Amino acid sequence: MTNVVRTTCPYCGVGCGVKAQSTENGFQISGDEQHTANFGRLCVKGAALGETLGLEGRLLHPEINGERVEWETALDETARRLQGIIDEFGPKAVAFYASGQLLTEDYYAGNKLMKGFIGAGNIDTNSRLCMSSAVVGYKRAFGADFVPCSYEDLEQTDLVVLVGSNAAWAHPVLYQRLVKAKQQRPNMKVVVIDPRRTATCDIADLHLALRPGTDAALFVGLLNVLPPPEPNAFDGQTAALEIAANWTLEKTADFCQLDSADVQTFWHWFAQANRAMTLYTMGINQSSSGSDKCNAIINVHLASGKIGRDGCGPFSLTGQPNAMGGREVGGLANQLACHMNFEPADIARLGRFWGSERIAETPGLMAVELFEAIGRGEVKAVWIMGTNPLVSLPDSSHVAQALANCPLVIVSDVVRETDTSRFATVKFPALAWGEKNGTVTNSERRISRQRAFLPAPGEARADWWIISQIAQRLGYGEAFNWQHSHEIFCEHAALSGYENNGTRAFDISGLATLDREQYDALEPVRWPVTSTINSTFKSWRANGKFQLLPVEPALPQANADHYYPLILNSGRIRDQWHTMTRTGNVPRLMQHISMPFLEIHPQDAKRYGVTQNSLVRVASRSGGVVAKVLISANQLPGNVFAPMHWNQQFARKGQINGLIKSVCDPHSGQPESKQTAVRIQRW
Ligand code: SF4
């Protein structure tokens, strides 16, 4: 019997395969050579996973008001209080706030309970902050949330455009794959579109350091210079091309504050390339017009035919290990399970499948509006699962006020003390990576197994189990009578094919009859299960016309002014994960960058009298933080950058999201986390 367990990294959306081998001293972690996302490679975070397995700081027992209680007590009391709120104020007075860290089976259980049986749409997720604009973009263009690319395409393309993506730090193994592809095919060109010169620019043939937030104009202007598609090839084509006709080279270069020769080079390379891919992530999505930016990108791929072929397509990279799985089960408040919508036929279909007459009929509250509704007292109970919104949501002082006044805050987590859990009435101890068992889906729609190789510590339980126990106490026992994650996965797979008839792109019904052994042995597989990605995308295209969405480029809502003269960009650093609740405890991951910093151009440093490594207070109209100065010509003058990770444990005054206003894209509800007007002063 082997002592190696093959599993999947719990950090970013690349979804690397990981091997955990038990040794005398614990577990040795290495990359899984058989996993096609990474072929054995791991980045520094993945390689350090073995150092995150300790139990220090773990939540190991249920608690109510900070006191340890028995599971029965915690579950009974939580269900009693939830039922009381539902009876008195209706189902919309309760909400779940989930996470791209949850496994698909956990997510499915949470979505089923909220939208299928409690009867409200109020389950949303921290993935709202990550890729909800990309979902809107795909759905508007293709009629489905369909990612039309795979990682293999990187090895077959002629041009890679990275826009709003520092893949070298945020998706490191994918970036390494790109580096290798470029070495093997030196004629392949790489364009990086980003206001900052990041590590990703190391392989760029062209770096367009554009004025922050103006990305859409580059693609709308590109649409204007591409050969026009056949008449009526796409819905919306006339209007989209009419707008694009206004975006001449001069106007685009002026709007983006770029050299027109550089813009022309980019457009020429794209137009001439036989195959081209555009990779995009938070720099596009986290914007008050993020959905439109996504469609501006998709438009040029549709219009030029650089889609549905090997080496082509608009590729949204997801930030979290299971952001895609959340999309698949309906973990976003404005969608139903298995890519169904809030439409009568889908609602009725779900009711038949789940045997429920209580299916939510209207979308629920999206992340930012959910916490605003808690603040107004409209939502009276929130169950936060596997996420730390006090650090990750914008305008965190309002989030804190909201939770402080919320009558019932339930937190399921692996960490006992987080910025969020100090507001918890009830704490449920959840299983961590290495202990839990289920599936995740990566950026290219590949479903992989996360497998347990450690026993459950203390009284920690799987998230799906906790949810099912509450569901049973609320009176929905039969529908939640699962004994193992395998049963949930098969139910989810069966639902994906239920009355589908090719009308929904997400279909994994071929996996619905896996037995337990087959589920345990499941190899990574992309959905839909029976076809290759591009041929499937082609056949999906045959279902109907795609849309060129008319996009009018817009500036960010954040404006620098006399009082707040700098624009703050926020993002990830190489060695930390989200709010540092795990990676912050690994000494070697702290060696790269050990404290919050503010990257600032030398001209601005001089202007504001700050010196290298000195401390500055950074303030916006929403809050203030303290950070160490990093003077760097990689910034554009007038712009600064700070990482989004630090929680209160590691930097008492370092929560950068506290500076960010809750301004959201009107279609996706995704906050504009990339642009905030700030000022600085020496600390
Ligand atoms: Fe994990 Fe992402 Fe690193 Fe791969 S690239 S090892 S998935 S953090």
TrEMBL record:
Coiled coil feature spans: none
Gene Ontology cellular component terms for the protein in this record: membrane; oxidoreductase complex
Domain 4Fe-4S Mo/W bis-MGD-type: 2-57
Cofactors required: Mo-bis(molybdopterin guanine dinucleotide); [4Fe-4S] cluster
GO biological process assignments: cellular respiration; nitrate assimilation
MF-aspect GO terms: 4 iron, 4 sulfur cluster binding; metal ion binding; molybdopterin cofactor binding; oxidoreductase activity
Keywords: 4Fe-4S, Iron, Iron-sulfur, Metal-binding, Molybdenum, Nitrate assimilation, Oxidoreductase
Family to which the UniProt record says this protein belongs: Belongs to the prokaryotic molybdopterin-containing oxidoreductase family. NasA/NapA/NarB subfamily.
Protein name per Swiss-Prot or TrEMBL: Nitrate reductase
Source taxonomy: Bacteria, Pseudomonadati, Pseudomonadota, Gammaproteobacteria, Enterobacterales
Residues of the full protein shown: 1 to 683 of 857
